[in-house]
Amino acid sequence: MRGRELGSTNVMAPTLEVDLSEPKNRSLSQTASHVFVALLAVLAVLAWQAWSNRDQGGAASSASSQDVSHGAQPEEADGSALSAPAPVTNGQDNALPSPIAPPTAAAPVKITAAPASLRVWHNTRVVLEAEPGPEADFTRYVWHFEDGSNPAEGAKVTHVFPESVTDRHITLEAHRTGSTPLVISKRLPIERLLVAPVDGTGDLVRPVPKPRGLRVAFIGAGAALPNDQMLSRLLKLKVAAFVIVGSAPAAGGAAQTLTKLDSPAPVLHLDTALASPEVPLPDVALKRAPLTVVRDPLGRVTHGAGAGVWVLDHVAFVPHDSRPLASNEAAMLALQRALQVASAYPSIAMLSARPLSPLIDHEQVADRAFRIYEHALRSNVAVAVSASSGVAYDGRYGGLGAVSVGQTAPHGCARLAGTDHCQRGTVTLIDLPKKGGSRTLHLRLPSLSAWLDTAVLPSSVGKYRR
After folding, report:
1. Which of 17, 136, 280, 428 has its CA 20 to 30 A from that of 445?
2. Distance CA 304, CA 341 (A)
3. Rounded distance between C-alpha atoms, residue 278 and residue 234, angstroms
């Protein structure tokens, strides 16, 4: 039996030659023994070749997976409450690619601190440095340490924080010629000591919690259309309704996608086309209602007892048209009447393009903001949602819960006033229960499995407090 080539490697099988001219006194048992040994050798070579091919294939698969993981964009380590990255699926075994958020621009100026935390009951010497962005033209930097010490000037300063027992806040004024100073702040945390769990196990990953009442997803789409993967993931998180912020085509695209996904979830569109001193809104834009129902296959969204109120289950949505720069008295009376009608429902969400107080630098807020606040407070509004700022935030505006909706694809640096952190793409979930306060989660793209936490969202922005 001659040798042959096995697989891609030239391996010669042992050759068995039976000499028929041997003496007849050789026993048949000896001949059978030689045949058996040769067959075992052939089988061993074949098994070795099969095992070698399998090992090479596994190594190639491992290398391929490493290449993919190096090319992926992980979640930023910014203190977000992380959850297991659940892949978006189409109901089958194949996972669909998640939407990837585009990179954001750099902040105008960023504060770095070394060390990044303060020691408990120790004098901590910290080197602070202002790192301007590529297009910044700052000429002077003034630091305020809020510990009773005098301000310091310079792009790089050193300060000793005495015997810290809590977090400290520093404020930087970045001056430029012919413009007001840019003011940003940074929290220097006190060192956190690691606490081992009682049962000896590691920290549990926090999943996105179950809905508390009606769960509504607010998507700041802008020019980007919400895709199948995003909406499928949100449906798995028990989102009952969608409010698309931005262009009407984005809302229409979301409605078509939900129809394709066979979801009964309604889709509403919140218009955020703002007037400005330079570009006033045309009459045709002002004639469009600020909040419209784009899709409602089951007829669940109904008008309230009066105009300007949309009702879904136990939640009344009251839109306030803050797109113009000024609100006339008729608009304020209409809002007051709508809130009075909505007060008959267990939960009220007031929707507005502009916020009640600035969330970003040089922002024009809703006209007559304090009167709007008074009407909302008297009507027991659960949450006031604004959408034109383009940044994600939630907190309290006096006695009123307030939420700002971010963007799925931020333009430039989406930055809250007074901070140096550029937000990435987010989708905002708001739970509105029949009783109790609302709950807000700003889910981060692309996974929609982590949300912005206190490390990213500051404790205060202007008049807002978390």
Report:
1. 136
2. 7
3. 38
